[in-house]
Design brief:
Distance between the termini: 45 Å
Structural class: alpha/beta
Shape: globular
Strand order of the largest sheet: 1-2
Number of helices: 5
């Protein structure tokens, strides 16, 4: 044998298998993955989470964030996305927030990493933060929250 033999509550486990094998979400809501070097991207991610929660959306947030790092996505985020893609991440809506002082590039990099994924919808436009958030960025994040809450 290869592992435990399930004898109770088989409907529960069969349902989980059906969800996982169809690449569906187990629960409704938004997962926010962010990476932050100086805390500005973290602030943007937490503002998006608060805006979504105000709209009644269930939110899970993970400390990864994604500022631009040497003209690329922050290494922790690159690794996170690579693992999603290698496991056939698909059928999701993705909103991108990038941060960079001189030449933000992380949104472009992250978007290209998902090119081979099926049924990925990107919320446009992505939010571009130049170091610290501005009032305009706060409005753009509100717009992302509205689109993600649909």
């Amino acid at each position: 044998m290869h592992g435990p033999v399930l004898t109770d509550n088989l409907g529960y486990y069969l349902n989980l298998y059906n969800v996982w094998s169809s690449y569906s979400a187990e629960t409704d809501g938004v997962f926010i993955a962010y990476a932050s070097v100086y805390g500005h991207t973290e602030k943007a991610a937490k503002l998006l989470a608060a805006k979504l929660e105000e709209k009644g959306v269930k939110v899970a947030i993970s400390d990864l964030a994604c500022p631009t790092y040497n003209g690329d996505a922050f290494p922790a985020m690159r690794e996170f996305i690579a693992k999603l893609v290698e496991r056939s991440y698909q059928s999701r809506k993705i909103a991108l927030i990038e941060n960079g002082t001189w030449a933000p590039m992380s949104a472009k990099v992250m978007k290209s990493m998902f090119e081979g994924s099926k049924n990925i919808e990107f919320v446009e436009p992505s939010v571009k933060i130049l170091s610290a958030m501005t009032a305009q960025n706060e409005q753009e994040i509100e717009n992302l929250a509205v689109e993600l809450a649909k």
